[in-house]
Design a protein that fits this description.
Elements lengths: L13 E3 H6 L8 E8 L2 E12 L2 E8 L8 E13 L5 E6 L6 E2 L1 E3 L7 H4 L13 H12 L22 H32 L5
Antiparallel strand pairs: 1-8, 2-3, 3-4, 4-5, 5-6, 6-7
Helix pairs in contact: 3-4
Amino acid sequence: MNRREKDAVEDYRCLSVREIQRDGILVAGWRGNWRWSRNGEVRASVGLEVESLTRVRLTYQSRWPDQDKAQQMDYTVDVEWLPCHFGGSRPMFCCPRCDRRVVSLYGGAVFVCRHCHQLNYRCQQGSKRDTLTELSHKLRDELGCDEGMLSIPARCIPKPKGMHWATFERKIARLQRIEGAAIADMNDYLSRTAKRLGMPW
């Protein structure tokens, strides 16, 4: 399938372990609902139970297009805690389908990672004036990171299982060079655009 024909992550409901932790929910014994709202109106929700710091349970109803009756879904998702470079640790979901460590899972019949759904980012789908962003996404995929450069700095990406430290450090160094150049190019583009429109920058 052509990459430009893929669905984008923005088209799917996202369950982010980072948001769950930030909201104080990732605590053993917590039980309740995780909701998605638009304009103050709840559009969807899933039951969420934190069985332990390393496992959460999801319960919800899912309806396939060719089914008249909704199916009750009930399954667990593993959570793995990875050490940060500067101390502490951060949680990552383990995709229920491929076991990839990811920050976000995307809803379908089952919440799985964007790779299993074959999703890309909307910014990757139009005409691209800059290949640096593409290289950044490619390197982050190789490093098992599904977050973009504006979400998590390259230096905070944990080493994937099985990757040698020398390889990991080489990829991180390359990623930092690429993203530094991408940000500089972005700033230059915004500066030129602001000048053309007569706006301060």
